[in-house]
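In the current project phase, work has continued on tokenised descriptions of protein folds. One protein thus recorded appears below exactly as we store it.

——
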Amino acid sequence: TPGHGAGGGTGEHGEMDDSSKEALMEEAPPRYTESPRLPCIPHELKSLMLVVALVVVALVVVNVTFLLLGLHLSESHAETVLRMTIHGLDGEGTPQMLAMSKKERTGTFAVRDGLNASAAVVYDYSKLLVGYRSWRHRACYITRVDKDNFPGLDAVTETFQRRQGEDVGDKAEPLADRSILGTTINILCSAVPVFWA
């Protein structure tokens, strides 16, 4: 009968429950050991350690940022500056070093100024100026040029060296307004007076 089957099932479960309880009671409960505790650190020391850790992380982030920025700037600068050595047609003579900046629209040449000295000649194509700075003399010289007729490097060097050799005396006044100069000539001549040639 259904009622008898249901009652019999309950009785069997009751017996199983008693036996499982007895089996559980015979086993000893597991023993838990207390984990070792860290020494007590004062709250102020924890705060200080947190601040130091944050400062170290911030410094690392700033350094990495500057390194990556520097790498990016050097890559972009390398793309816009062309450097080359120009030899004479016969392969003889003194090689001329040229650096060109696409952004500034300038060409800078290293030339000789006498036996053991050098000078820099800057062609500024945006300002239509040519500048000259000898490392032997404490002056810079500039001249305006025609946009359709830029003079050659030899002619410019000779003109500037001749002007440099003249007695400046009281006749020549240094350039007062340097805003007409481009960035490259301004940097080249920043510590010396600038004269028109």
